[in-house]
Task: structure prediction
Amino acid sequence: MSEHHYHDASNVVNPEHAEHHIVTPLQYSYVYGGLIIGTIITVLAADINLGVFNPIVALAIACTKAVIVILFFMHVKYQSNLIKVTVGAGFFTFIVLVTMSLVDYMSRAWGLW
Amino acid sequence: MANTIAAAHEHEATASHGHDDHHVSLPQHRHHFETQEQQREAGSFGMWLFLLTEIMFFGGMFFAYLLYRNWYYDAFVTSSNQLSVPLGAVNTVILISSGFFMALAVWAAEVRKKKQLVRYLILTTIFGLAFLGVKTVEYKEKWEKHHIPGASFDVHEFINPAIDAKTGKAEQRPLAPDMAQKTQVFFFLYFAMTGMHALHMIIGLGLLGWLIYRAQRGDFTDGYVAPIENFGLYWHFVDIVWLFLFPLLYLINRHPLQ
Amino acid sequence: MHISPVMWQFLTKWLANSALFPREASTVAPWADALYFFLVGMTVVGLVLVGILVIGFSIRYRKSVHPVATQIEGSTLLEATWTIIPLAIFLVTFVWGALLYFRIYNPPANSMNIYVVGKQWMWKAEHPGGQHEINALHVPIGRPVQLTMISQDVFHSFSIPDFRVKREVIPGRYSTVWFEATDAGTYHIFCTQYCGTKHSGMIGEVTAMTQEDYDKWTQESTSGMSLAQNGERLFASMECTACHNGTATARGPNLAGVYGSKLTLTNGQQVLVTDGYLRDAILNPSQHVTAGFAPIMPTYQGQISEDGLIDLVEYIKSLNSNYRVQQTLGTSQSDLAAPTTPGMVKP
Amino acid sequence: MSAATISSNTILSLPDQRTASMPKRHYINNEDGMLSWLLTGDHKRIAMLYLFSITFFFFIGGAFAGLIRLELLTPQPDLVASDTYNKFFTMHGIIMIFLFLVPSVPATLGNFLIPIMIGAKDLAFPKINLLSWYLYLIGGTFTLAALVLGGVDTGWTFTTPLSTHYLNTHVITAATAIFVAGFASIFTGLNFIVTIHRMRAPGMTWFRLPLFVWSNYAASILMVLGTPVLAIAIVLVALERLIGIGVFDPTKGGDPLLFQHLFWFYSHPAVYIMILPGMGVISEVISTFSRKRVFGYSAVAFSSVAIAVFGFFVWAHHMFIMGVSNYSALVFSLLTMLVAVPSAIKIFNWAFTLQKGSITFETPMIYAFGFMGLFTIGGLTGVFLGALGMDIHLTETYFIVAHFHYVMVGGMLMAFLAGIHFWWPKMTGRMYSEPLSKLSAVISFIGFNLTFMPQFILGYLGMPRRYHAYPAEFQVLNVLSTAGATVLGVGFTLPLLYLAWSLKYGEIAGNNPWQATGLEWQIQSPPLTENFTEVPVIDYEAYDYERLERKHANEVTTVG
Ligand code: HEA
Ligand code: HEA
Ligand code: CUA
Ligand SMILES: [Cu+2]
Result:
């Protein structure tokens, strides 16, 4: 039996492997355009008074841009599930850090004790 | 037991056909990897794990920012308004462009176009340098205004903001003295976060120089693209950090006073 | 505490006399000990169980008597058993622990208040009557005592093991703990949070005494000025009266009766005025501006020591009418009021 | 014996050592000279480099432990000045945690064994592996520098604002040390994760992995995701010291608890970084010496992952009385109770692995039994601390010191020693003296309990930790503890001596002295540089003693 075939990237059934996809310059240009537009919108939106929604809108746009970069520039869209899960795990842990600590800070104000 | 053995063999059988033909052996292939593909996937997975640590590294600072922004909102607004949105926005565009060229560089390497690869890498570098240049201008302004946290930090301006010559109105709401002190927290976080970001850029530019040198030698246009790809991941990650830094630091409550 | 009281007394007295167990000198101590015994029981049971399994199997299935190993995959039933039973025990522990926590940290309404200031490396206790003590604390027995504590520098932690109470003493924030001593005697105070070089020297003694003895002690050790009186002087000398003079035209709000009330802030939020709020209002006034007022109050950060703040807080708490403020206005003109902050720490 | 019984019952007897011979070529003699070691990419050599360096630091840390115990012999502050004492326990803590326990099993045994266990030639990134060792050394050098320049006295927890504004010792040097050593640990973890995902031999599915690999995988997740948060916390401390802006200084509007959140966000998962690889060792050892597959393989495997994941949700239990809100104290207490359950699952599965086994009591097994008992005590006393109301009385007392020494020394260190004794023949090709090693295991067990059991009692009596002097009534128990530490010191020094001795004079071990099933035992000891002469193909489960026996039987028939 030959051992050279186990780590076979063309075996897309395996969640750890994916085909090597090449994104074309045209696709990159769309992404680039999208990112620039996103930047412009952020700046414009900051000038409008949306109350509490200002930071939310700003962050929403930033997140969208980040997701676009991750998916296309960083090729995650064409990557194996393993990579997708990995990226997710990073953000998940960050969210855990933020929410669970913020819960402490917010709930300190709720009661005396 | 018999079952498992059979299953394993079956698996191999399905996996084994039609691979050998495009199995090229490159000089960069390390002995402990079975295949080129395995090496490549290991490399990019490793890079991603490294980026995870970067997420958590910046994450700590983002959390500190979030906390103090909630606590000292007024101070954060006032200090944020001291930053120049045009410069920040231009820098965002510069960085996005740099990332765009990086993405193109990866493409060039994948389709084995050496000249283009070098050209895109140089463009990436130029835009990266431009970003740092703008950043230097901004830092210098902070230095002149005594907004560098530490001994020489000056809150005077936040308590008695300058009066606009034309309108005769204050450019921003004055802060109470105790709140004005908190602007230092903002500027500390500003410098810590953008500084850490800039440090990553500088490291990245160093690596870029080395990659350009090797790309010129033709190292990456013979099918061995891993270094370019992995550097690309790093560079895009640095971009992403900035995508968040820009709105968070520059755009707090930017609309005109009510 | 479900064993009979006699048994309990016997158990704890016997243990305490063996010098392996702390005395139970407060009302919460038996409650804490009850949980402790439960947990010790859990540990012993768990350990014995694991021990029996390991030693029992080792003897029964050692190679010389059991040369042929039988392969076993596992057992879902057993897995479930040893997931659920420990989980149940731990959840009981959680609930019990939480109940104890609230018992220890929720002071009864009628408790008397003593202030404690921690600094590297000593404890200062300030009784409402103005008695100051260093590394010592006198308390009456049979009466709930609440400590309102703050640190002047780093984290400290105020611990009285024989009372089973402890609480972090935090820089920049009041924290409270309460206890009701049951037995007269002296007990250790330890600083249990590492706070620098002489952390282990930051110790003291609580003296629990009967109410009569305590009253006698307060009489004898009074400095003649209560905390509120100190605060009154400070209020005058720091020129708080310039704005808080209780008149309708005053630039600052009337502070009479403000303690314990609900204030509406300019941003519409409602806050309860507590010791902590008063302290914060003096140090960071612009962070919560009372509705109807301009944020003109200067910050006193770095100008008043923690003791001074306690005096001020105590003074403001004592203001039930404007009478005292009017009096204070008079005092501020006289040269009686020393401009030094009482108890200000000299570096 | 009929075929049917063979398939469910296994007899395995240890091979005759006298016939074993040392292979001519192996990873140790493959290349010669200092440089071939210092520039090696071979995971086995790097493991050995790590082994030497962590042993070195263990004994330095141990020397500080000795000094601590010596000072605490009497209630008076007589041996050293109080700030010297503070430097002692700080150094003891920093060295033991960051330079010994965190890298202990992963960087030595894990490094050596994981590639072999999964059938790979090396870790995915040999150069990064070497880099990690150098980073570790740089971290160690900074620690020693901090020590030589005059010491640090923050405690290993670096509590702000003490560490940022109130101390003038070498905090930044120590912070740098931890920062750099942290990256060593990140790179080890990263390497493991990639290797385990990408380098498994054909047929080595996840559920055929030995449990040692699973638990190291779980620990690696914690290293990769947790350590950077410590890094940033430590950077902020250094910046705060350098320019003093006040992110952690309450007088300037900062929140000192923010540091605690960041620090414990790493340092609680870190305790699982410390224990999980040790648990992996225990799985291997118990299975081997009872000749039985691990009871409930998947439960043990998943409980490792569960510990790693839940480990991220409980950090604030170190801050219960430090001023977190009571609501979050409740939440964190509850989650702490949940994270304790997977450990219980593991303990019981190990116990039931013994059932119907055919148990022998070699040295690694003795250590593993020590682990089971001591970790149960340590873990269950952790539950005391997780219960809110109980923690009020116990926190920051010797009860905590006892708790974590039970889990770290009684648990992890025992597991580490079990592992070292277990794989020593594989790593060096030689056996150590069995009676001596059993003796030292027993000595450490007795010494350990004598040292730390009295500390539980001291803790409940209220003796605070990090105390240089203490009230006289606590002396008796402290004397017992110091006496125990002396015994313990002997128990830990003995292995150093006889293991060193065995390098030259030990009997030749042979490929599989324990008749264990792991892939690492099927190759020569010490292994070849490339581990396997041909890539192994796995078509059997881990801990398949029947297969081993069949193989054994075949060998006999062919020879006969
Ligand atoms: C290897 C290291 C390690 C490990 C594994 C653990 C494991 C645990 N730890 Fe520990 N801990 C430390 C190292 C470790 N700890 C350190 C170093 C400190 C102090 C840091 C400092 O301040 O310097 C500390 C401090 C510490 C505290 C903070 C105390 C304080 O500062 O006030 C708490 C509180 O919840 C805690 C809890 C726990 C719990 C619940 C577990 C659980 O994971 C334990 C789970 C295990 C079991 C539960 C045992 C197995 C169970 C059974 C066999 C079942 C028994 C049967 C029945 C129930 C019938 N630990
Ligand atoms: C892996 C972790 C680890 C290990 C193995 C140990 C091992 C030991 N520890 Fe440690 N300990 C910690 C981690 C660890 N400790 C931590 C994190 C702290 C908290 C620090 C802080 O508060 O910040 C602590 C704190 C701590 C204290 C509390 C100090 C205080 O709060 O005031 C004590 C006191 O008894 C103690 C004792 C011991 C003892 C007796 C051993 C023994 O097991 C050691 C036995 C080993 C030896 C004795 C070495 C044998 C070798 C020799 C004797 C040769 C000597 C060589 C020369 C003299 C050159 N430790
Ligand atoms: Cu104050 Cu320790
Ligand atoms: Cu913990």
Notes: Chain A has one domain: 22-108.
